[in-house]
């Protein structure tokens, strides 16, 4: 076994011990997204090939794989953001709570309320911290100041940033550190009470300390939300996810419990990737 595999195994074991000592019971989870035979083309580029993935609610699902393998494309199909690219074509089905979201009759506005997204680079609006949070709720017609104040407090608390910003709510969000801006973006997501949070490499622009805070936050958030995270950081996937999908050249090579993927993968390409032999 390579050194990297041993490190992965230790990370996964530590996680399991932590969960066991916290008394986490193993329970059956409901499926939140079910992807069946999904194919996606950017004009001539066949970016996703026959993807079949079933994602459970209130778990962290990590999407890993080398650059260009379709990770971002896949999570952007889950909120239909990928449609914004001209020339995109899909076949197959993605059901969200049993309904096919690729069906044109599925209202994309409803989907985006339920499925929030956090990007690689923190992208707060050039507005105050307060205005960043109330932006979504206001679009949904909430005007009552008391209710908005409450949403701001709860969302910032939910993203573990309230104590750091409660005395400067009306200052510009650009004055926050990168890590704080990312937690603000997560709070902005929480403000519209989504069901699922998609995260596209949310810590790759952050320092190790801010990364750790976001990872701790993800562990808290999964109690209430389903989280799908794209990450290049294998240790991160091993630390924080319940399930892992390994993508390669637009295909899912292996999908299953993070523990199994990182310690006993069934496909040699998965083993080569997590051992750092390519990618
Ligand atoms: N807007 C686009 N237009 C055309 N092709 C695209 C577009 N976005 C991605 N692609 C292509 O689709 C394939 C998958 O790209 P994608 O960004 O999903 O991969 P990724 O695994 O997320 O990569 P990375 O880890 O580098 O972010 C690549 O071949 C890429 O060049």
UniProtKB/TrEMBL annotation:
Gene3D superfamilies: P-loop containing nucleotide triphosphate hydrolases
Keyword Isomerase: no
InterPro entries, alphabetized: AAA+_ATPase (IPR003593), ABC_transporter-like_ATP-bd (IPR003439), ABC_transporter-like_CS (IPR017871), P-loop_NTPase (IPR027417), PstB-like (IPR005670)
Cellular component aspect of the GO annotation: membrane
Superkingdom in the source lineage: Bacteria
Tagged with keyword Nucleotide-binding: yes
PANTHER family attached to this UniProt entry: ABC TRANSPORTER I FAMILY MEMBER 17
Protein's name according to its UniProt entry: Phosphate import ATP-binding protein PstB
Organism: Compostibacillus humi
């Amino acid at each position: 076994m390579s050194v990297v595999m041993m490190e992965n195994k230790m990370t996964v074991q530590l996680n399991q011990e932590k969960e066991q000592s916290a008394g986490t019971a193993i329970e059956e989870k409901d499926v939140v997204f079910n992807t069946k035979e999904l194919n996606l083309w950017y004009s001539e580029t066949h970016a996703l090939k026959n993807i079949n993935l079933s994602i459970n609610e209130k778990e962290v699902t990590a999407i890993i794989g080398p650059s260009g393998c379709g990770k971002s494309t896949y999570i952007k199909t889950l909120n239909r953001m990928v449609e914004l690219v001209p020339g995109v074509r899909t076949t197959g089905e993605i059901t969200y709570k049993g309904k096919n979201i690729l069906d044109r009759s599925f209202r994309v506005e409803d989907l985006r309320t339920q499925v929030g997204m956090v990007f690689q680079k923190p992208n707060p609006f050039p507005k105050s911290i307060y205005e960043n949070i109330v932006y979504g709720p206001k679009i949904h017609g909430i005007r009552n100041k008391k209710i908005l104040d409450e949403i701001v407090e709860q969302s910032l608390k939910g993203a573990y940033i309230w104590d750091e910003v409660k005395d400067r709510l009306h200052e510009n969000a650009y004055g926050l550190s990168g890590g704080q801006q990312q937690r603000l973006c997560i709070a902005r997501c929480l403000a519209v009470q989504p069901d699922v949070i998609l995260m596209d490499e949310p810590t790759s622009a952050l320092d190790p300390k801010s990364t750790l805070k976001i990872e701790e936050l993800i562990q808290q958030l999964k109690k209430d939300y389903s989280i799908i995270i794209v990450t290049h950081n294998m240790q991160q996937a091993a630390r924080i996810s319940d399930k892992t999908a390994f993508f390669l050249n637009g295909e899912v090579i292996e999908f299953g419990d993070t523990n199994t993927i990182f310690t006993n993968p069934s496909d040699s390409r998965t083993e080569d990737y997590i051992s750092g032999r390519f990618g």
